[in-house]
Amino acid sequence: ITGSGFTPTGNSVHITDSIEVTNISSSDSGTGLSFTVPSNLSVGTYSIKVGALNSDWSNTLQMTVHGSEPSNLFVSANKVGETELSWQDNSSDENKFVLYRFSGDNDSLVDNEIAGFDDSLTTFPPNNSNSAYKVADVTSGAEIAIIPIVANTTSYIDKISLEGLKKYTYVVRAMFGDNLYSAGSNVAVVT
């Protein structure tokens, strides 16, 4: 939450009429608060108010809570050399899933790309189409495939032919709207 006048400690967030997150620390400049959304909040939109220590509450703001990232991603090669994937859908409000396939041996690339995909990589060309596309990482030489998958789906067959001992690393994320994504699932690898 961005604002002004927050104290170094003791700030609070009041969610709807019954939940309060207290003793939130502010950034050094007093212009921002970060807090963990209580786990007992279900998917939905909530009214919140923010207050610094010993001050009045802010005006009412809206906060939307989305479902969690997919989990238990499992991959295996089938008899015809394709990759079969399955995962657990932990949200009820995704617009689609996005599957990322990395080919190459650079494990740090996977962590860095999933943690920091910028809008140019996560916007589907053209006009948010449902077409898969590939991005080449010029630094490592790895190829990244970005594959949109219909919402409420928990499996997919990647029909790329596996090449010998080449390593393919997968991560799946839920997409909740225009460029709003969950964290990535666990990483799963097939060779």
Q: Your description of this structure?
A:
The structure is a single chain. With 191 residues, the chain is mainly beta. The chain has helices spanning 107-116, 119-122, and strands at residues 11-15, 19-24, 44-51, 61-65, 71-77, 83-88, 96-103, 133-136, 143-150, 155-158, 168-177, 180-181, 188-190. The strands form three sheets. Strands 7, 8, 9, 11, 12 and 13 form a six-stranded antiparallel beta sheet that branches. Strands 2-1-3-4 form a four-stranded antiparallel beta sheet, with no helix packed on it. A three-stranded antiparallel beta sheet has the order 5-6-10, with no helix packed on it. A hairpin with a 2-residue loop joins strand 11 and strand 12 (180-181). The radius of gyration is 20 Å and the shape is elongated.
Task: Supply Rg.
Answer: 20 Å
Low-confidence stretches: 114-129
The whole-number mean of residue pLDDT values reads: 77
Shape: elongated
**Percent of sequence in beta strands:** 35-45%
Number of strands: 13
Class by helix and strand content? Answer: mainly beta
Distance between the termini: 43 Å
Number of helices: 2
| Portion of residues within helices | under 10%
N-to-C SSE string, H for helix and E for strand: EEEEEEEHHEEEEEE
Sketch the major β-sheet.
6 strands, antiparallel
SSE topology:
Elements lengths: L10 E5 L3 E6 L19 E8 L9 E5 L5 E7 L5 E6 L7 E8 L3 H10 L2 H4 L10 E4 L6 E8 L4 E4 L9 E10 L2 E2 L6 E3 L1
Antiparallel strand pairs: 1-2, 1-3, 3-4, 5-6, 6-10, 7-9, 7-11, 8-9, 11-12, 11-13
Quick overview:
The protein is mainly beta. The chain is built from two helices and 13 strands, in the order E-E-E-E-E-E-E-H-H-E-E-E-E-E-E.
